[in-house]
Fold:
Amino acid sequence: MDQDAFTRVDAYLVEALIDRDEILDQALSDARAAGLPMINVAPNQGKMLQLLAEMAGARRILEIGTLAGYSALWLARALAPDGQLVTLEVEPRHAEVARRNIERAGFSDRIEVKVGAALELLPRLEGPFDFVFIDADKPSCPDYFQGALRLSRPGTVIVVDNVVRGGGVAEARGDASARGIRRMNELIAAEPRVTATAVQTVGSKGWDGFCLIRVVR
Ligand SMILES: C[S@@+](CC[C@H](N)C(=O)[O-])C[C@H]1O[C@@H](n2cnc3c(N)ncnc32)[C@H](O)[C@@H]1O
Structure:
């Protein structure tokens, strides 16, 4: 593992391909200043989410795990002016920072931050959503996958972040997060309504990966 090299290459890729954006940079500075954990997606991952949501033609997006609203802001850029993004966050302090960031970015009309445990909020939501990004606590991923599926339609795209966990997912007796991802993978594999893959990634955020799921019926 050469984390310095991964970080250097990510810095190059971001410099080469991702336009600098003061509002997104400010969202991260505010998160840091507020003492939030810096566990947001990297800029090149945020842009990938935006592109995936655009490719899916998303008009309604659901996110589980808001933090400071950084990935929500990337995803919201895929939306038409009448589109909607609902993002769920259990920590009121995170939600407060996110709401400020969203307001400053001019997305308050399109992004709604709901505060509470996602497992309690999900059953109260009405679908369908066209795109779902799952990025909260990993032990609950099996339930988040099932909740997202309930709120989907054929064609919905679901992305789950951090599914490799530095290789931990390959250990059958891994920690609770790795076990959550493995259980989710079992549910996905047994679910005839979806088709999926998962890809390992390295970068400024270390060795991890994402799962890409498409609801087919
Ligand atoms: C990895 S961070 C999200 C990062 C964000 N998606 C981004 O890239 O900018 C995970 C977030 O999920 C929240 N979270 C953890 N458990 C949760 C739960 N049970 N319900 C809702 N949110 C939860 C955490 O408080 C944290 O803010």
About this structure: The mean pLDDT is 97.
